[in-house]
């Protein structure tokens, strides 16, 4: 059983890397290509760990390296699968939680590398997770859908306020500002987190995500000021912090929070 779970985690990591390489450019899955020359990778290079072990981390045509992200993602998926097995060895729980982890990892990787939260990922994930969580007898459709609605409305409001603030500030400075605090991809991610943790867990999940982003931003600004390299309106991916809040609640804090609010 552990070997099967580890192999499943490895396969999930390969899938996450494949989608992270293709979806931002084509919005659909595709074969892995070298980012340097565009040639197709050989079979071993489709896995970061296998390419590392076989010494094929560089393109055979242009010698461009694949970087360490594929290796890290596959290692994280294997470690995550092992942790899920220790947490709950029931096959259905392993499948559900493993898919949720893989989806959130894909969102984080794409957001860090491209500052995008793709509808091609978030919308199917929202539908799939909503169905699965609605069938959970401990959750039901009411709490699941209410959590998604609260996440959507809360971040939709933040999105609108952010757009208005950016336009106002741009006019005041007489200089257009292209960056906004929240994109609509963040709204869809908040919706996904809502259907994942349900009501009322979505409240603490989004609060933790916003708090984590705020603390990181504060530390980052202080470091940049100390190094005299601070630039106003420097974009920071927001998705990883929201994902952190969502996963903390989903895997640990949902039950305690629901008991707290009754």
Question: Could you characterize the architecture of this molecule?
Answer:
- It is a single chain.
- With 262 residues, the protein is mainly α.
- The protein has 2 domains: 1-114, no CATH class; 120-262, no CATH class.
- Helix content is 72%, strand content 0%.
- It is built from 9 helices and no strands.
Q: What's the SSE blueprint?
A:
Elements: H1 2-26, H2 48-54, H3 69-87, H4 91-114, H5 119-134, H6 140-173, H7 184-197, H8 201-226, H9 239-261
Helix pairs in contact: 1-3, 1-4, 3-4, 4-5, 4-9, 5-6, 5-7, 6-7, 6-8, 7-8, 7-9, 8-9
In short:
By secondary structure, the protein is mainly alpha-helical. 72% of the residues lie in helices and 0% in strands.
CA gyration radius, whole angstroms: 20 Å
Kindly estimate the percentage of residues that lie in beta strands according to DSSP: under 5%
Tally of domains: 2
Beta strands, count: 0
Q: What is the percent of helical residues?
A: over 70%
The gross shape turns out to be globular
What is the arithmetic mean of pLDDT? 85
What is the rounded distance between the termini?
Answer: 38 Å
| SS-derived structural category | mainly alpha
Poorly predicted segments = none
Number of helices: 9
Q: Specify the biggest β-sheet.
A: none
| Order of helical and strand elements | HHHHHHHHH
Question: Which key features would you list for this structure?
Answer:
9 helices; 2 domains; single chain; globular; 262 residues; mainly alpha
